[in-house]
């Protein structure tokens, strides 16, 4: 992800995609006009963890750079999914072993450490450290949990700095998923909010993205008599899996069980 954000860091996913003339949305429109049906791919995007480059994540009180990178990559994937881009690749799988301090742009964008272990100058005597950062687990969880889902509709777009996206299961058409997050960069945690998540008494599966968890942390919550489920919304996206219903995904503030 390129571009100059606030205070010399990269723009957040929300700043980037909501900006007038966003290059990705513009390119998709032009491609569709000139070559209808041609798939559009996006390659080589990401965020540096070090804060010496223009694509670095910012400083947010209470979080380290690995957590912010994970959140921003997760939110970028979700927002990208509604642009019409068919496939995308992130840059890069591992950080650059030759630049462990991250003094060069793109060198700390990796999902894994990529540092040398042992004597890197002696063949057969060294290896790479493939231990993963939170961003690896976050995007793996999104990929696994939404594998059979496709973007369906945007329920909430920057209302109180909150986004709600709806995805529809392509095997069971009445099954939907809601991705919910706050697009702020203040370590925000807001409640009480409730979301219309189905019919009365339905059991809703809620997945939170988590470090070291390939499929996140999932809990089942029973909706109340009006199909509402209470939420705490943070800057880390959560995903709710449920059955489609009228006004599904609508948020209500100030409602508690």
In short:
It is built from four helices and 13 strands. The protein has 257 residues and is α+β, with helices and mostly antiparallel strands.
**Which secondary-structure class do the elements indicate?**
alpha+beta
Task: Determine Rg (CA atoms, Å).
Answer: 19 Å
User: What overall form do the CA principal axes indicate?
Assistant: globular
Helix content: 10-25%
Strand order of the largest sheet: 5-6-7-12-9-10
Number of strands: 13
The main pleated sheet reads as: 6 strands, antiparallel
Q: SSE order in H/E notation?
A: HHEHEEEHEEEEEEEEE
* Total helical segments: 4
**Terminus-to-terminus distance:** 40 Å
Q: Assess the beta-strand content as a share of residues.
A: 25-35%
Low-confidence stretches: 2-6
Tell me, rounded to a whole number, the average pLDDT: 90
Description:
The chain is 18% helix and 30% strand. With 257 residues, it is of the alpha+beta class. A 6-stranded antiparallel β-sheet has the order 5-6-7-12-9-10, with no helix packed on it. A 3-stranded antiparallel β-sheet has the order 11-8-13, with no helix packed on it. Helix 3 (65-80) runs parallel beside helix 4 (134-145). The longest helix is centred in the N-terminal third of the chain and has 16 residues, at 65-80. Mean pLDDT is 90; it is low at 2-6.
List the helices and strands and how they pair.
Layout: H1 13-18, H2 23-34, E1 41-45, H3 65-80, E2 87-90, E3 116-118, E4 126-128, H4 134-145, E5 149-159, E6 162-169, E7 175-182, E8 189-196, E9 203-208, E10 217-222, E11 228-234, E12 238-243, E13 251-253
Parallel strand pairs: 1-2
Antiparallel strand pairs: 3-4, 5-6, 6-7, 7-12, 8-11, 8-13, 9-10, 9-12
Helix pairs in contact: 3-4
